[in-house]
Amino acid sequence: MSFADLGLSDELLRAVGDTGYTEPTPIQASAIPSVLMMRDMIGIAQTGTGKTASFVLPMIDILAHGRSRARMPRSLILEPTRELAAQVAENFEKYGKYHKLSMALLIGGVQMGDQVKALEKGVDVLIATPGRLMDLFQRGKILLNGCSLLVIDEADRMLDMGFIPDIEEICTKLPAQRQTLLFSATMPPPIKKLADKFLSNPKTIEVARPASTNVNITQWVVPVKGPAFEKRATLRRLLAQEEVRTAIIFCNRKTTVRELNKSLKSHGLASGEIHGDMDQPARLAELDRFKKGDVNILVASDVAARGLDIKGVSHVFNFDAPWHPDDYVHRIGRTGRAGATGTAYTFVGPDDQENIDNIEKLTGQKIQRLSDLPDAPARDERPAAREDRSRRVRAERRPRRPETGPDQAEAPPRREREERRPHRQETARDDAPRTAQPERSPDPGRERRPRRESWRDQRDDQRGEAPDVGWNGPVPDFLGVALTR
Ligand code: AMP
Fold it and tell me: In this structure, which residue's CA is closest to atom 13 in ligand 1?
């Protein structure tokens, strides 16, 4: 099947041709004709399947006719995070380059003034995170009764971030006669309920079993007996493998992200970090450094786990097994994208055991243990040469300390010794819940897990409780609030 068989306009086919895509992905082939026929749709698809184009492409053709009016956008795409919203906006620019549609990106961490100006001119497409959208709505800056096309993207992520009540409220402000598309990698009961309430006779398209992992990703569990510094020593050995070109390392806590990045840098590795305590410009700048190859390792909290489309990530490491098993699927989905292969390692220490059990239950698959293998990469302590890039970056940094033997735990520096203190101290400082938990799926053990950083942090500043920081530096093109008309 080719894109030309899907009923898209010539302008869109030209824009798709410019990207070099030769044929639609399975979700695009199934979704695009239905969306063009104005049907409601549920897309159960993992990131990396091409799901963004499956709604952006037909939306552009649907919106090509008609005009926008001041403060009354014609369509709305809801995204759980600013990064994802910015990425969808990028897609609109790419595919909409031969159309004259206007777009506004409403995300927190950016001055409201420009967003309001764009809204006043009238926009065809609104791409928003729920917090900022509600804020502008409550200030009377936006009317939603002209939005006849709604996309709820990454619905299960919205659930995790506590956005479902906001989405329900937003749905009630939209016209009853509208087309609604809902995308989610998994369909936990609250999402099913949302779909039943707000979609009408939807076509369901499923391109991978819910919570299944990508077959292009080789997965390993790495048993680690001791505390954090042992995980770090194991991590460095694995990072030293020849084939580790780029890696995202996920940690459950912001403090762990910061500490780990510091530790990696002190060992001469070219690493950066991204987590919810950083403001938006700092997060984007860090992502940019990773995308450009200035650093080849990115240490991340779950704020970066979903949807981010970074090409060619060869490895994902779960420094901690994620508390929520769904997050495992999303974290490792940062590698093995668009047909490429990838490798994911999950470190399992005593604190991670329950989490990995839940992950294996969810994915229905027992992940192979690295220590079970005779030629396990972890044994290969002295690695072959690394990629030129990381070597170059390392050369600029201070000389490496002499390596310790494979099983000889290095004498931990003072900071690491401090980490041997009971975990509770760190948890109490950084991650103790401050407010009631949002709605949760009835997943066993979920309530007992510590609260994650992401939803509260993002929500707070999206709602304007933290100062609006604006951009420190040039705004990337794709973040421009209004395009051409
Ligand atoms: P998504 O699932 O929307 O995050 O897309 C994942 C990646 O697949 C992105 O890098 C897209 O640019 C790429 N992509 C989308 N559609 C196609 C296609 N038809 N052929 C090849 N790559 C695609």
Answer: 50
